[in-house]
Amino acid sequence: MATVTSKGQITVPKKVRDALGLHPGSQVDFEIRGEEVVLRKRVPGEVFQRWRGFLRGQIGGEGTDEIMKELRGE
């Protein structure tokens, strides 16, 4: 169990950090599935591949600025 702080932060339990190989500075993604949240370790290059697949065949898809913000995690 984790408690959300006033800043919206939680501490990821050690068992979870160890299982995912999370270290200080690791990036994670959150996915909402109904009433649950899934935490995934972000793999370098994964965001680019996701955008690349999305934009393939799209005319006038997201602009470069939006893609760069996503890649930077902004």
Automatic annotation (TrEMBL):
This is AbrB family transcriptional regulator. The lineage of its organism: Bacteria, Bacillati, Bacillota, Clostridia, Eubacteriales. One of its GO terms (molecular function) is DNA binding. Gene3D superfamilies: 2.10.260.10. The keyword DNA-binding applies. InterPro entries: SpoVT-AbrB_dom, SpoVT-AbrB_sf. Keywords: DNA-binding. It comes from Caldinitratiruptor microaerophilus. The keyword DNA-binding applies. Residues 1-46 form the SpoVT-AbrB domain.
